Amino acid sequence: MDRPVFRPIHQLPVIGGRNSPVKTVGSSGKFSQHLLSALDSPGKLVLSKHAEERLRQRGISISPERWQRIEDKVNQARDMGIKDSLVLLKDAALIVSAKNNKVITAMNRQEAGEQIFTDINGTIILES
Question: With the C-alpha atoms ordered 57, 54, 50, 35, is the resulting torsion angle positive or negative?
Answer without folding.
Answer: positive
